[in-house]
Amino acid sequence: MRRALDALYGGAAWLAALFMIGTLAAILLSVFGRLFDFHVRGTDAYAGYCMAAAAFLSLAHTLKRGEHIRVTLILDRLPPGARRGFEIWCHGAGILLAALLAWFAARLVWQSFQFNDVSQGNDATPLWLPQIGMALGALVFLIALCDDFLIVAGGRSLRHRDPDAEPVRSE
Fold first, then answer.
1. Is there a contact between 136 and 102 (Cβ–Cβ < 8 Å)?
2. Is 166 left (phi over 0), alpha (psi -120 to 50) or beta?
3. Domain segments of the chain: what residues?
4. Are 31 and 44 spatial neighbours (Cβ–Cβ below 8 Å)?
5. Which of 108, 115, 160 lies closest to 134, judged by CA?
6. DSSP the chain
7. How far apart, in whole angstroms, are the C-alpha atoms of residue 101 and residue 133?
């Protein structure tokens, strides 16, 4: 199961990287279009779609590598029992919020598809297509939070995350 989950998080991260490349390609196409006097419709919109997909698809991988910002001001001062309880509560609240985000993102995709909603730009892209990245990223993030919740509830520490990863230093 661990391998499948790690593959899911890694796959989402690779998709996010591809969308970052898509953002770069759209921006470069727009820049070269201005330089060489040609116009490709919708490059600004597609750069934005790719950027949003990259942001959401990278959430789970970033969480699992311990790179999300955590305010540990309270956690560091609690005794071990209270700390574990507070972490369980925090993960539960995170799961609730991530579940709401995933639900409403998926609902938005469905409604955009159902109503044939298109972008307001001159490219007239069906909006459900770029919204899939947001919904998929929110769902994978929810799964990652549930994974972390089970780790914390099982009494294990999240500090075991990627042992090969370089620790983050703020110097």
1. no
2. beta
3. 2-160
4. no
5. 108
6. -HHHHHHHHHHHHHHHHHHHHHHHHHHHHHHHHHHTT---TTHHHHHHHHHHHHHHHTHHHHHHTT-S----TTGGGS-HHHHHHHHHHHHHHHHHHHHHHHHHHHHHHHHHHHTT-B-SSTT--BTHHHHHHHHHHHHHHHHHHHHHHHHHHTT--GGGS-TTSPPP---
7. 13
* Residue range 128-166, pLDDT digits in tens: 999 999 999 999 999 999 999 999 998 887 764 544 555
| Packing angle of the helix pair 128-153, 43-57 (nearest 10 deg) | 10
pTM exceeds 0.90: no
Dig out the tokens for 16 from the structure.
């996010």
